[in-house]
Specification:
transmembrane; mainly alpha; ABC transporter permease; transmembrane helix; cell membrane; about 80% helix; membrane
Length: about 260
């Protein structure tokens, strides 16, 4: 079944690339705005041979990885503390619901004002966006803990952190991993967006330069790279999730199927 899915995915990608080659060749769109697939891949080859491209890729991955790590750590700690400390969840619920919907891009003026085009501007946006993905999942996960298991742990004299380790954490971990997977994708989106808008070093800034200089094939080539990065991030996050939850019924059932 998995081999068949891979074959279908490859066939769909091949059809998409063929469509991208045919549409401008047939004059349905102007090549100046949407070059054929062959020209885009030619530009991609030139990018891969340019050392500046690899430096930009490294800058993007650095901002993504640091922002994601900070967001995951802060989200897990904050979620556990808010859930465990009595009445803290009720006290912070309105604040969380107020801050969570604010788009990270709305913080771009603040980031530029504070840090200019430095890496810290990128981190501010990435951490803010990815943090909520993790925090909300941790809150949901701990809320899903069986009250009977919680009371049993209390009756056996387990302290607060022992209950977190042996009762809350195993229940919340599937939610945490879902939050990490979502945060990984959001962090990549915000990293490239910040680079594109703010001008911080990275693939986003390189896309902006290609666009302003009318280097259209190079621009699309860089966009393809960001798409490939997104695919790698998603596959990597799912792999980590399956590994961390190898004991969980959902993953065992998925493997069995």
């Amino acid at each position: 079944m998995r081999g068949g899915n891979v074959a279908l995915g490859a066939a769909g990608l091949a059809a998409f690339l063929a469509l991208g080659e045919a549409v401008p060749r047939l004059g349905l769109v102007k090549e100046a705005y949407f070059p054929p697939t062959s020209r885009i891949f030619g530009a991609l080859g030139d990018e891969l041979a340019d050392s500046a491209f690899w430096l930009a890729l490294g800058d993007t991955l650095t901002g993504w990885a640091l922002g994601l790590a900070i967001a995951v750590g802060a989200g897990v700690v904050a979620g556990v503390v808010v859930s465990v400390v009595p009445h803290l969840r009720e006290a912070t619920a309105s604040t969380i619901e107020f801050l969570r919907p604010i788009p990270s891009v709305a913080l771009i003026p603040l980031a530029v004002l504070l840090y200019g085009t430095e890496l810290r501007s990128v981190l501010l946006l990435v951490v803010y966006a990815a943090f909520w993905q993790v925090l909300i999942q941790v809150l949901y996960g701990i809320q899903d803990v069986d009250p009977v298991a919680e009371e049993t742990a209390r009756s056996y004299g387990l302290g607060p952190w022992a209950r977190v380790r042996y009762v809350l954490w195993p229940t919340a971990l599937p939610y945490v991993m879902t939050g990490v997977r979502l945060a990984a994708a959001v962090a990549l989106i915000l990293t490239i967006t910040a680079e594109l808008v703010i001008g911080a070093p990275g693939l986003g800034a390189r896309i902006a330069v290609a666009q302003t200089s009318q280097a259209v094939p190079e621009m699309y080539a860089l966009i393809v790279v960001t798409g490939v990065l997104g695919l790698i991030v998603n596959v990597g996050a799912r792999t980590v999730e399956r590994s961390a939850l190898a004991w969980h019924q959902s993953v065992r059932g998925e493997v069995a199927v």
